[in-house]
Amino acid sequence: MDSKLNREIILNADKVVITGHTSLDGDSIGSSLGLYGILKKIKNEVHVVYKEVPPKEFSFLPYFSNIKVTEEDIIDENDILIVLDCGNVERINLNINVDKFRNNIINIDHHKSNEEYGVINWVDSSRAAVGEMIFELAQLLGLEIDENISSCLYTSLLTDTGSFKYSNTTERTHEIAGKLISTGINFTEIHDKIYENKSLKQIKLYATVIESMEMHYNNKLCIMEIKQSDIEKLEAENEDLGDLINLGTKIDTVEAVMLIKSNSEYKKVSLRSKNYIDVCKVAGLFGGGGHIRAAGFRSDLSTEEIKEKIINYLKGLI
Ligand SMILES: [Mn+2]
Predict the structure, then answer these.
(1) pLDDT one-digit tens code per residue, 18-73
(2) In CATH, what number does 7-195 get?
(3) Is the Cβ–Cβ distance between 51 and 94 less than 8 Å?
(4) How far does residue 314's CA lie from ligand 1's centre (Å)?
(5) Residues by chain with Cβ below 5 Å of ion ligand 1
(6) CATH assignment of 200-314?
């Protein structure tokens, strides 16, 4: 950790603004609110600010109602902006003139690709979640982690490790989780709020998608489709669509999954794989991209044309 990251730098600032990356997730928002609770113990002027409205699924978190949403550039000369879980300037969930205020930015992150855009850059890719780093920061500053802060940081650990199952989870992650639990948090409730909170519409969407499943190559390729008309019929919203693709990866024989969301103008296709298919390459066939195990693209081709191209490409590979 950078030794410049100390109590003085916090206390000397006029105000401390905390933000995360765009498309907020559990780590970004959990670590922001956790840090807010920690710094509030020594400073009045601490704010969590995003330009995007935070997802309401995290509204159970302590301090959630203190979040300020604004598109204005609210950083002044003697302020500090702490950016959490955000690898590059483009993803900062706040409008700020980075060139002008570079010396005000503290960048705390665990993405390997972090571009070190701050005056202090604490980047540690061995950390499962930024929530872990905020826990360490509290220790360093000698500030107590109470139950409210623990709920935030536990959410950050839980979501970025997929409930402590991804390979980024370490002994230290579990040690920190243990210390958070010892403050008395209701971890069962946190788990339920995050994972057992689907709306009825969302479950009905599952049914539609499961019904559309088409299997190829000895059940190794699963193709699913959801039409705009299905979504409208159920009066579902975009945020209800998030994890539909995981229905395919749950099948034991499946290696690759493709979910086609179609409306009258274009198709949006999401791709996932489990072990060996590089779906980023598949997306590349259509001008898209992403990661080896998760990728996507948009296309004006018909559903049949997209399917055919992908099925042909995977011949001999899957
Ligand atoms: Mn993260």
Answers:
(1) 999 998 999 999 999 999 999 999 999 999 999 999 998 899 999 999 999 999 99
(2) 3.90.1640.10
(3) yes
(4) 32
(5) 27, 85, 160
(6) 3.10.310.30
